[in-house]
Amino acid sequence: MKIIDRYISRQYLTNVLLLLACLFAIVVLIDFSLNFDEYLELATKYASEEARAAQPQSPTANPTGLRVATLTVWLLADLWWPRFFQLYNYLLGLVIVGGMGFTCAQLVKHREFVAVLAGGVSLHRLARPIIVVAVVLTGLSILNRELMVPRLAPLLTRDKKQAGSSSLGAAAQPLCADSAGRIFYARSVNLDTGDIQGLNVWERDRSGLMTARIRATSAHWERGGWTLTGGESERIVSENGQTGVSKPTPLTRLETDLDPTALRMRQFEGFSSNLSTPQIAQLITRTAGEANAPAGRIEQLQRLLWGRIALSISNILALLICTPFFLRREPCSMIVQSLYAAPIAVGAMLAALIAASAPIPGLPPQISVFVPVMVLIPVAIAAVSSVKT
């Protein structure tokens, strides 16, 4: 039986990889065709800079058309290669079902199912290598989500105008709070080096009123705190019913849990799906410690955290639900069977995606994200049991 397992596994894996490659190519070609002028403009800019650097005596040197075309393709590849890891997770659920459809269609076309059934082998036994490969691919998607995507998060947040750049660079840091309730703002934060320019910190009391203001020309993270350059602190004082500001006092050190890692997570907080599970858990802990955390933010992060598990399980359940449409003991039209299976597979995955994104009133996020899973489990059991063999 190992020969049959290897044969079906190899054929199924080949179909899955080809389907992934086709979908990736379609996505990239659509983006390239819709945004060709932006890629061409950026490539012309880079090519002109190279031409002027190669011929400093000729500031008006023009690049060759071949060089511009080469840079255009290179910018497209540079922008999209990190996104392939992200697209793999998004498309895996549909791809494993589609790969099973193509594999079974090939086996039915050549009457291989008939031959195997004549040898006394059940269709349930033939489904095992497909399910095993699908579980392995799902495991790879989990590793990809936990290891690769978080490391590529800075590259995944780039837009077309930033293609060709591999560093985060310096950017303004929006208002954010640490666990002590202090509000931080920075004119420029370089997440590559962990340096801050133009730091402003406002300390507050329990009612949210400002009690002190800290300013620094620059700051550098070391030994669990920010070492300030040109730092000074001003206290808000009240005397005789009047509020004023005390004389600035020099300040060289600021202890806080808002380290460069926390700033990086805050920078990509809008792209929480790019964070690993430990990073999301850390973000939940930090958000819970904030005095004025946004309402519902913790539940949203918890839903994202547990929704990942629910989505992976739903992908496998959708595959099991679609097995009766493709595991057929008699030859039939696989196109018709695909039309039957497609809405069921898409519906199952869409239900899991909605549950992982939208709250269900009265249920905590740890339970609400698994509602589609609980519904799909008996459906999957009934579907697998209904295979005629």
Description:
The chain has helices at residues 2-34, 36-54, 65-109, 112-118, 123-151, 153-156, 260-267, 277-289, 297-321, 323-326, 334-357, 365-368, 371-385, and strands at residues 170-177, 183-190, 195-204, 210-222, 225-229, 232-239, 242-245, 249-250, 253-255. It is α+β, with helices and mostly antiparallel strands. Among the domains are: 2-162, no CATH class; 170-258, no CATH class. Strands 1, 2, 3, 4, 5, 6, 7, 8 and 9 form a nine-stranded antiparallel sheet that branches. The protein is flat and about 95 Å long. The two termini are 17 Å apart. The relative contact order is 0.10.
What is the topological layout?
Blueprint: H1 2-34, H2 36-54, H3 65-109, H4 112-118, H5 123-151, H6 153-156, E1 170-177, E2 183-190, E3 195-204, E4 210-222, E5 225-229, E6 232-239, E7 242-245, E8 249-250, E9 253-255, H7 260-267, H8 277-289, H9 297-321, H10 323-326, H11 334-357, H12 365-368, H13 371-385
Antiparallel strand pairs: 1-2, 2-3, 3-4, 4-5, 4-6, 5-9, 6-7, 6-8
The DSSP helix count reads 13
pLDDT under 50 segments (min length 5)?
Answer: none
Beta-strand residue fraction: 15-25%
Number of strands: 9
Shape: flat
Distance between the termini: 17 Å
Task: Write down the secondary-structure element order.
Answer: HHHHHHEEEEEEEEEHHHHHHH
- Quaternary state of the chains: single chain
* Radius of gyration of CA atoms, rounded to a whole number: 28 Å
Structural class designation: alpha+beta
Largest sheet: 9 strands, antiparallel
Instruction: Summarize the amount of helix as a percent range.
Output: 55-70%
Mean pLDDT: 81
